[in-house]
Design brief:
Elements lengths: L8 H7 L2 E13 L13 E5 L2 E7 H6 L8 E6 L10 H10 L6 E4 L4 E6 L3 H11 L8
Antiparallel strand pairs: 1-3, 1-4, 2-3, 4-6, 5-6
Length: about 140
């Protein structure tokens, strides 16, 4: 499958259309895929030496009896960014870092997703909207 996404940083920033998910997410770790509760709505997994990191809605993780690491808001950038694009992650994480907001960035084939502290989600969303040149109240 060719990488047909947008690569121009200016276009990516101008047209990224950040979308704030209404539900909190959390990160948890399981040791084996067989340990994954079937009712868990998994957003993403990352396989590491220490275990399998699961990103899922916080309520699902709690109801599954797993331990989550914090409460995070998911902000998805709704532009098909090319996997080879240069600078988008740096621009968005840098803008958030400038106001003291941590960002865990995850890239899918089509979109980039940021996980920011739940309590600072509105501020993070506003910062990203400002990057697009739009006012933060134009959702």
């Amino acid at each position: 499958m060719p990488d047909s996404g947008e690569a121009a940083l200016g276009t990516l920033l101008r047209e990224m259309q950040p979308m704030l998910c209404s539900d909190p997410y959390t990160f948890c770790v399981i040791q084996h895929r067989a340990d994954l509760p079937p009712q868990l709505r998994v957003f993403a997994t990352v396989h590491e030496e220490e275990g399998i990191t699961i990103i899922a809605p916080e309520i699902d993780v709690i109801q599954s009896g797993l331990s989550g690491s914090g409460s995070w808001a998911r902000i998805s950038l709704n532009i098909h960014s090319a996997l080879s694009a240069v600078g988008l992650t740096a621009a968005v994480s840098g803008a958030l870092a400038a106001v003291g907001i941590s960002a865990n960035v995850l890239a899918g084939h089509y979109h980039d997703h940021l996980f920011v502290p739940w309590k600072r989600r509105q501020q993070a969303f506003s910062v990203l909207k400002q990057l697009t040149g739009l006012r933060a109240d134009t959702e």
